[in-house]
Design goal:
Layout lengths: L3 H16 L3 H5 L2 E8 L3 H4 L7 E3 L1 H14 L4 E9 L3 E9 L7 E9 L5 E7 L2 H7 L6
Parallel strand pairs: 1-6
Antiparallel strand pairs: 1-2, 3-4, 4-5, 5-6
Length: 137
Amino acid sequence: MIDAAAARALVEHWHEGWNGEDVDRIMAPFAEDVVFTSPFVSRVGPDGTSEAVVGAAALRAYVTGALRRTPGIRYRVDEVHLGTDTLVLDYTVTFPDGRPPTTGADLMRIDADGRVVEWRSHYPIAFVEARLPPPAG
């Protein structure tokens, strides 16, 4: 089970890192072999078809790009849920360009050393549909 102190530290890295636009702080808890997924990886990822970002270096590049695309984006952590080896952050995103805020939920799987080895981002269906092209076929 993830203890509350470890969970709070992880949430602090995530929250302070994104709101401070600090890539090093965001990346601090992630393992070298981390796997990240989001509905938007295929749209902004390196080749337009990937559904996952694999490895800390690739994730750092992805996060750096996200901060460059949306400077001034802000996150508010609404709730944190603990599992045996996972943590879920429910949050609200506020955009600097006046778009309506949206919610999100990030699941992070933590290894025995306390490092994040899996990070999965989730957003409301309407938010995803409004930003992604319809599937081909």
